Amino acid sequence: MIKIDKDLSAVPPSLESDLTGRRRNELVENKGYIRESAYDSRYKQDDIKSALKTTYHGKYAYCEQDVSDHFFHIEHYRPKSVYYWLAYSWDNLLVCCDKCNVYKHAAFEIDGNDIAFSANDLGDIHRLAERYNEAEKPKLVHPELEDVRGRLKFTKKGKIDSDDPRVRYTIETCRIDRPSANDRRKKVYDDFMNRLRSRLYAYSVKNDTESLGALKSLIRDFIRDSENPENEYLAFRGWMLSCIPSRLRRIVMKAS
Questions:
Q1: pLDDT in tens, 77-91
Q2: Are 241 and 226 in contact, with CB atoms under 8 Å apart?
């Protein structure tokens, strides 16, 4: 779970089309979301999917898993069943995996004041999330508004937790700590640590330039991969970097 920078000035055309506008007005008149394909299809257009996939670097918003081999869900941060007027709002649409989507569903607890529909908001319909969050103080983290990496805790088995109540609520609500996700993170950890131990052993035995270069290359490549937004589990990879022994860091830095 990392912060995502969405360009709110680049709203997909279908979200600003006359048809989408009419559908939004019909929802407003109905004072609730209408669960029919004519309404569902308006936030599932190809240009929206493409823009979200690009914005989220081909990964899901909460679990950070790659989207390529999985069913692509467009999720509403604020559930459309309650915030019906935000069903087609650009800053309310996320990309979610099927599991996070099912677990999250319409969960949206707040610690502040409820936001009700106001016609005045329609003129800024794609830029309401930040103002709404200030009023409602939602427990669920909005990945486009907050950087929570410093509040995440991991283990070498891939488990994820937090001492921050809101981050923990988000983890528990989306079940980001589910076994399948933990196993995928654990594989990233095991693969890197096994290679690290192997090259560290080679360097301790040979103590030559070649083995040191291989060790440095491994660490540098992992640092580079941990900064590439298209890679899975950047938050976890950042934690992994902190697990590299200080003794090893000194060896590498000294030899740089």
A1: 999 999 999 999 999
A2: yes
> What 3-state DSSP class applies to 94?
strand
Going 142 to 54 to 237 to 181, the CA torsion angle's sign is: positive
Contact 113, 135 (CB under 8 A): yes
Closest listed residue to residue 2, CA positions, set 255, 254, 239, 241? 239
- Amino acid code (one letter) for 248: L
Residue 89, sorted as left (phi over 0), alpha (psi -120 to 50) or beta, turns out to be: beta
Angle at 236 between CA 57 and CA 201, to 5 degrees: 120
d(CA 255, CA 20): 60
What is residue 169's three-state secondary structure?
helix
The one-letter code for the residue type at 194 is N
Angstrom distance (rounded) from CA 165 to CA 39 = 35
Residue 250 pLDDT more than 90? Answer: no
pLDDT in tens, 221-230: 888 898 899 9
Cα–Cα distances (Å) from 214 to 39, 142, 217, 225, 248, in that order, read 56, 40, 5, 16, 13
